[in-house]
Amino acid sequence: MYGLPFSYEAISSMNYLEQCLKETMRKYPPVQALARVCTKQFRVPGTDLDLDVGTAVLIPVYAIHHDPQYYPEPDTFNPDRFAKDGDGGGGDNGRPSGVFLPFGDGPRICIGMRFAMLEMKLALAQFLHRYLVTLSDKSCTRIEFEPASFLSCPKGGIWLNVNKRKA
Ligand code: HEM
Questions:
Q1: CA-CA distance, 84 to 144, in Å (whole number)?
Q2: Which of 11, 16, 116, 142 is the most exposed place for a label (fewest CB within 10 A)?
Q3: What ipTM was estimated for this complex?
């Protein structure tokens, strides 16, 4: 099942790889905010803030992904946050909807989401199957984002040592 090239079934069964990708996109969402326009008068719950029709709203994806209410110890990389729930649930582990937004949400959610997940898993699985990867001394230990970039890009890049695995 796990011979190269990996089959669709093999890739689909790689749950921990998927958890790692989701945790990476939680800590470093490629798109840090979503843009919306208010179409109905709305009072923000628990406040006296009214949003009028036509108001531009930015959904702060990065901040939501780092809210300890939903992700305890948010700076810790912990793929188990996305482990399949014991009750057969989808891996939200009791979190409400709308707090994991790397692909957005609602009617305008990323149309390429499933393709992107599959493609990332396939690329990583094939790459890690052939190469051993370790962090280079040139890499910084705490990632800072490039301020001039629309997408989350690490300042100075990420340096890795890549060695071909022995057959
Ligand atoms: C890791 C990869 C990707 C990420 C993180 C990503 C993220 C996003 C996000 C955040 C949005 C906005 C959703 C919203 O406003 O609720 C979006 C929209 C969109 N994405 Fe992606 N995307 C990815 C890959 C792809 C791929 C592979 C395709 C096409 C094959 C694609 C096509 C689109 C399109 C067409 C929209 C606009 C959808 C609409 O407005 O109805 N994306 N994506």
A1: 30
A2: 142
A3: 0.98
* CATH number of residue 143's parent domain: 1.10.630.10
pLDDT (tens digit per residue) in 3-52: 888 999 999 999 999 999 999 999 999 999 999 999 999 999 999 999 99
What residue owns the CA closest to ligand 1's atom 10? 103
Within 6 Å (CB) of ligand 1, which residues are found? Answer: 30-31, 34, 102-106, 108-112, 115-116
pTM: 0.94
- The ligand 1 atom at the shortest distance from the C-alpha of residue 107 is 41
Helix axes 15-27, 113-130, angle to 10 degrees: 110
Which atom of ligand 1 lies closest to the CA of 35?
A: 15
Closest residue CA from atom 14 of ligand 1: 104
Between the CA of 109 and the centroid of ligand 1 the distance, in Å, is 7
The one-letter amino acid code at 20 reads C
Residue 2 lies in a domain: no
Structural domain contains residue 51: yes
Domain range enclosing 47? 8-164
